[in-house]
Write a structure and sequence with these properties.
3-stranded antiparallel beta sheet; alpha/beta; 7-stranded mixed beta sheet; homodimer; 13 helices; about 375 residues; Aspartate Aminotransferase, domain 2; Aspartate Aminotransferase, domain 1
Amino acid sequence: MSSKRFERHNIAKLAGYVPGEQPFDAPVTKLNTNESPYPTSPKVQDAIANFAIEGLRRYPQPTADRFRATAASVHQVARENVIATRGGDELLRLLLTTFVDPGACVGMTDPTYSLYPILTAIQDALVTSIPLEADWSLPHDFSSVITAHQCQLTFIVNPHAPSGRLIDQETLRMLASEIDGILVIDEAYVDFVSDEAHDLTQLAVNSDNIVLLRTLSKGYGLAGLRVGYGIGPEHLIEPMLHKTRDSYNLDAISQQLAEVALADQAYAKSVWERVRLSRTDLCRDLQALGLQVFASESNFLLATVPPECPLSAKALYEGLKARHILVRYFSHDRLQDKLRITVGTDQENAHLRHHLAALMQSGSVSTPT
Amino acid sequence: MSSKRFERHNIAKLAGYVPGEQPFDAPVTKLNTNESPYPTSPKVQDAIANFAIEGLRRYPQPTADRFRATAASVHQVARENVIATRGGDELLRLLLTTFVDPGACVGMTDPTYSLYPILTAIQDALVTSIPLEADWSLPHDFSSVITAHQCQLTFIVNPHAPSGRLIDQETLRMLASEIDGILVIDEAYVDFVSDEAHDLTQLAVNSDNIVLLRTLSKGYGLAGLRVGYGIGPEHLIEPMLHKTRDSYNLDAISQQLAEVALADQAYAKSVWERVRLSRTDLCRDLQALGLQVFASESNFLLATVPPECPLSAKALYEGLKARHILVRYFSHDRLQDKLRITVGTDQENAHLRHHLAALMQSGSVSTPT
């Protein structure tokens, strides 16, 4: 073991990102990481069955052009407005690498997606964290704080995680026009928004400084495939596509399966509608149990455990885990009385409700014998 | 289009990496990017056929632990000594991100793998480039120059690209002990080394400052899958594995197929042996045509076109391309009279030899009618 430290200072002091629990051994009801409760399009299975290993011998098409063309067609933008990435996370990293200098500020809300401050620290940039209002809306002085800190880039997750709140198009357009840096709108959960008129793609591609993040992990049942993409004006997409991106960031299989899944919009939309309906039912069920639930436009619900409940949110999380049901608990100061629950199948949601009710009634987290 | 520039200064002035030509339309004899002439293990096809889309609904195992365990077993090291990456390129980037400060120096030979200086520029670090001797060996003062520039990291590709020359184990051990920074030995082509006793894995894992790069792109016929890995002491592997790596850098399919391919060592070794035999034959054939060929321990040959040849190396490259045969030509000052030719199947090699002979004889690059 070395006595010398080789890590850069910012890396040495960094605590890495800890993903939500991913058990691979025991079967669990998994409502903690916002994956789709339904498999991806059946056409993806056909594509796998027809994939020949001969196609793996050569390097893949470097820029995933067929996938990008499909995405461009779906969103009615040009292929030059799209970059395909290894999950949304790669796009976040590329945005920081390409546009944010070490020592500069990166804006974000508090709370937000917990990966943003970690990727910012890897770039040795500084976090400008702005608390949300009590109802999870942006504070009125958000853009002036961003401007005062000269943030080169600002992350907004919309619908917001972990609350599920949606910021409307006009507010975002104003925000982008008021700030000097790039506005990244992380639309990881946008497929589950009820209002089909909510669509920022034309705003982004015609803007100076807006990049949208999309992913196939949630809405397309493909978290395991690691494919996402960015949409924005060409002057922001181009340097990531041709300079900072790893030369072959998407493999040949992922490119093909992602294209098939994205092209099957009819199947995807049917899944999103099912999730929205289940979200309404689950919200009502949780409220009936005495929990306060924030109205969500995403595929998860943020539930507050009221003070009069004999068990805390953390105890309920642990009690559910002992019953092989995973939900998400955050030790963040504003989230300590809350659980984030992914909308599952109706069967999974009923299973959760049953055990949650039992736990709340018994007032004890001990496992049933 | 924006009048404002958002790109960082180092990115704005950067010319991105240009991969070797990858035609996806017309059939070509492709001897330009050192891919395997043979498909990967047939067991990989079985694994594809048995892959169910249900497995894609969930996030993949974040650190590719099964693949890492298989690699550790193959190399007789611990799993903690291995990181799995999206091709070797991702490992190169992670090494720079984790261990090299902006403004610091990164050592490399000249010529070398052309991606190194580009990734170094993205990290906003400085290139310390040290010319190789005429026979492609390291100059005697290599380590003292590296030390004088306080290089935090040094890249050596071994066997060397584009010459195919192998540096022996003792020279590398000495070099690592003489320098203060990290020595990255890029073993992308090590599977094709004739001497089976050449093995640096124990040296690396017991060192303070050596990381080996391995890839499945060449030796395992899986360039399209984008899987590589690093081997080194735990204090160098750990921060890349748990801090700077994208949270889920390898998808579920890639992890499984890579594990199957790597585990089938018998098949892989049979391919390497076939390539070595073809390399000997191709070398002899090229020499018979009057080319000078450097002895290669890799899956490619560097051939010098002598001054008396009526066509230059560049003209031969273009003439072959007109005949749908791709080899690699570099406009680098020391390589302008050379072609880098990937060893293909015996049929592909014979096809190349035939057309090369015809071109050299005719003295004209015009396509045959």
